[in-house]
């Protein structure tokens, strides 16, 4: 059998890898400007060869940010009108608009994290930013869909939707890419989010919330450190206390004690600073419990800090004012988690060659916005693995063999879906 991921797909992937699409929330001073609109246009052109029609290629409406769950970092960035204008998403369709029961939807993101590097292909492996997360999966998806389109029922009896979105990286969590498309009804009976899973079909996706603990005290000269508030000592104490108390506090959740920053100079006491914590959960209710635990343990830590340092020479003022100068806020919170189940869809995925999820807890991605869809099943599925393929790190790669295998799974999944779903005419009244 001839390869599905052929030379044209290889060239397309290298082309997309050459064009930077770093999410603005990730971009640093050394990152080139994002060319995401151009990438999406090239992707749409390639999809048109398989019969897909562009339904929408446009920036998200500003109103999508006036919703619960939008991270504060996204709201702040969107004060610049160019932010949303430069972050369009693409909706493609094969076949006419049909009922959800006769529609399968695929979602893939084409924005990346920072660190754009020149791409390469050595005949076996693609390297470059986005190779596995998720430009490689995006092109392999097209290869599989192009092959599936040759089945007479695909497009005739069932419709395929394809979302190619911005706003997955940078902590945006799909709030201005995937979420508006799903809320507009662009989804199906089966929804597949293309992320690196090692070709395991994960019917779940964790959600995440970000706690921001700030200290707003007064600086002091190093010759009189007792005169100021030592944010470094206070936040360091809080970081260790919370790490110990929150580890395993809510089963099924993960706690990432992330960045701590107060200052870079050695000859002063830094009175202000920030501690960030990222907290993920598999069930929405567990997220609520974890937020309660964070709030409780921050208050507990401040009391312990005061008790521990109230009688010291250098930190007595910090201890006395600890509760007053410390605040807990949330950069993002209230996001849903996906935990789906459907024997019919899971059997279809297995027949197509997707591997079982087993005990894999999943990870955070845009699929959370498909949680709770009526009469629908959602899975996360794609080639490669986030850790093993160095996603978000130097040397990110994906192997040609994995892209070919994923294209085959997509082809079989779409054709099996078309054969399993009754033709629309069977539902029409006599």
List the helices and strands and how they pair.
Blueprint: H1 7-18, H2 36-48, E1 53-58, H3 72-77, H4 82-85, E2 89-94, E3 103-109, E4 120-121, E5 125-127, H5 135-148, E6 159-165, H6 178-183, E7 190-193, E8 204-205, E9 207-216, E10 220-221, H7 231-246, E11 253-261, E12 268-269, E13 272-281, H8 284-309, H9 316-325, E14 326-332, E15 338-339, H10 343-352, E16 377-380, E17 397-399, H11 400-420
Parallel strand pairs: 3-6, 3-7, 7-16
Antiparallel strand pairs: 1-2, 2-6, 4-5, 5-17, 8-15, 9-13, 9-14, 10-12, 11-13
Core attributes:
20% strand; four-stranded antiparallel β-sheet; Aminopeptidase; acetylornithine deacetylase activity; 2 domains; Alpha-Beta Plaits; 430 residues; single chain; 17 strands; alpha+beta; six-stranded mixed β-sheet; Peptidase_M20A; Acetylornithine deacetylase/succinyl-diaminopimelate desuccinylase-like protein
């Amino acid at each position: 059998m001839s390869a599905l991921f052929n030379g044209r797909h290889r060239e397309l992937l290298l082309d997309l890898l050459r064009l930077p699409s770093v999410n603005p929330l990730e971009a640093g001073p050394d990152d080139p400007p994002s060319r995401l609109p151009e990438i999406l246009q090239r992707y749409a052109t390639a999809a048109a060869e398989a019969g897909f029609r562009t339904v929408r290629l446009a920036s998200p409406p500003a109103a999508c940010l006036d919703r619960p769950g939008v991270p504060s970092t996204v709201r702040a960035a969107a004060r610049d009108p160019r932010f949303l204008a430069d972050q369009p998403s693409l909706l493609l369709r094969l076949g006419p608009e049909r009922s959800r029961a006769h529609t399968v939807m695929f979602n893939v993101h084409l924005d990346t994290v920072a660190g754009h590097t020149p791409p390469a292909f050595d005949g076996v492996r693609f390297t470059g930013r986005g190779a596995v997360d998720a430009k490689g999966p995006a092109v392999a998806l097209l290869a599989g869909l192009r092959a599936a389109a040759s089945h007479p029922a695909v497009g005739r009896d069932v419709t395929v939707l394809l979302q190619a979105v911005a706003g997955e990286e940078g902590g945006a969590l799909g709030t201005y890419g995937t979420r508006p498309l799903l809320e507009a009804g662009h989804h199906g009976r089966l929804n597949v989010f293309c992320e690196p899973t090692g070709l395991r079909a994960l019917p779940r996706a964790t959600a995440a919330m970000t706690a921001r603990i700030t200290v707003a005290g007064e600086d002091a000269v190093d010759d009189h450190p007792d005169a100021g508030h030592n944010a470094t000592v206070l936040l360091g104490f809080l970081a260790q206390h919370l790490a110990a108390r929150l580890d395993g506090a809510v089963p099924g959740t993960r706690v990432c004690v992330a960045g701590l920053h107060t200052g870079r100079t050695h000859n002063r006491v830094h009175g202000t600073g920030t501690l960030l914590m990222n907290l993920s959960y598999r069930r929405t209710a567990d997220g609520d419990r974890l937020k309660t635990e964070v709030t409780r343990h921050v208050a507990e830590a401040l009391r312990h800090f005061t008790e521990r340092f109230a009688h010291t020479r250098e930190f007595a003022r910090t201890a006395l004012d600890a509760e007053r100068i410390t605040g807990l806020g949330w950069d993002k919170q209230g996001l849903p988690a996906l935990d789906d189940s459907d024997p019919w869809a899971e059997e279809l995925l297995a027949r197509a060659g997707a591997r079982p999820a087993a005990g894999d807890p999943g990870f955070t991605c845009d699929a959370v916005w498909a949680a709770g869809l009526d009469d629908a099943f959602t899975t996360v599925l794609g080639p490669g693995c986030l850790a093993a393929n160095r996603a978000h790190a130097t040397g990110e790669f994906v192997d040609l063999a994995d892209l070919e295998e994923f294209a085959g799974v997509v082809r079989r999944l779409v054709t099996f879906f078309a054969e399993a779903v009754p033709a629309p005419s069977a539902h029409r009244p006599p």
